[in-house]
Write a structure and sequence with these properties.
The chain has 209 residues and is of the alpha+beta class. The chain has 4 helices and 6 strands; from the N terminus they run H-H-H-E-E-E-E-E-E-H. It has 2 domains: 3-125 and 179-202, no CATH class; 128-176, no CATH class. It has helices spanning 3-28, 44-73, 95-124, 178-202, and strands at 128-130, 137-138, 154-156, 159-161, 167-169, 172-174. Strands 2-1-3-6 form a 4-stranded antiparallel β-sheet, covered by helices on one side. Strands 4-5 form a two-stranded antiparallel ribbon. A hairpin with a 5-residue loop joins strand 4 (159-161) and strand 5 (167-169). Helix 2 packs parallel to helix 4 (178-202).
């Protein structure tokens, strides 16, 4: 692909990633989505849970695009190794270019990583109950023994009450053991590709002899 094509692809995927991360972060804190576009769950914990695989996948794609761009077209200063968003005629050596490119890297890479940390913190702190009647509290989302069926075995709760009876509102389906493991692998891959992108972006390209 040409440099301009990778730049457009970086812009599109990165913008979706930032939008989803920020909206999920806001909703997970009890707020409302910005711009009124309903893409994430309105409940804090499900919004965080869904954001983990979505943001991880988008971050992997964004980071891979960044790595390819840096390897193929990055010459000179580090600003040339980051795809340019919206502004084509950007003088790479200027202080304005450094500030702009630094801001875009933070927005398209560092913010999603911070978002993933927040989403995991939100999910790990939530209570999980079985869907049986009466429901029972599950000790850990990593418990494979709680996976009694593939069809709605457990619910992760935004609002949990133990008395007078167990109640779980603002919830979402969770496959104990399976989903946490899959999400953990995906998140690790996302953070790993992001780190690889940072290395490619800031490491000076060696001249070929």
């Amino acid at each position: 692909m040409k440099a301009s094509q990778l730049q457009r692809l970086w812009t599109v995927v990165g913008s979706i990633l930032v939008y989803w991360t920020i909206n999920s972060w806001i909703v997970s804190q009890g707020g409302q989505e910005v711009f009124g576009i309903k893409l994430v769950s309105p409940h804090p914990v499900p919004a965080a849970l869904i954001a983990i695989p979505v943001c991880s996948s988008l971050l992997i794609l964004t980071s891979l695009i960044g790595c390819v761009y840096a390897r193929r077209f990055g010459e000179g200063t580090w600003t040339t190794r980051i795809p340019i968003v919206w502004i084509n005629a950007l003088r790479s050596t200027s202080i304005e270019a450094q500030l702009y490119q630094g801001f875009m890297l933070i927005a398209f890479s560092f913010v999603p990583v911070a978002g993933l940390v927040h989403f995991w913190d939100k999910v790990l702190g939530a209570k999980i109950v079985t869907t049986g009647n009466p429901p029972a509290l599950i000790e850990s989302m990593w418990s494979w023994s709680a996976l009694t069926t593939w069809n709605d075995p457990a619910r992760i709760c935004t609002n949990f009450k133990l008395v007078p009876t167990i109640s779980c509102s603002g919830n979402a389906t969770l496959l104990p053991g399976v989903e946490p493991l899959a999400f953990a692998v995906l998140t690790t891959a996302a953070v790993g590709t992001a780190i690889a992108h940072w290395i490619f972006a800031f490491r000076r390209k060696q001249n070929k002899r």
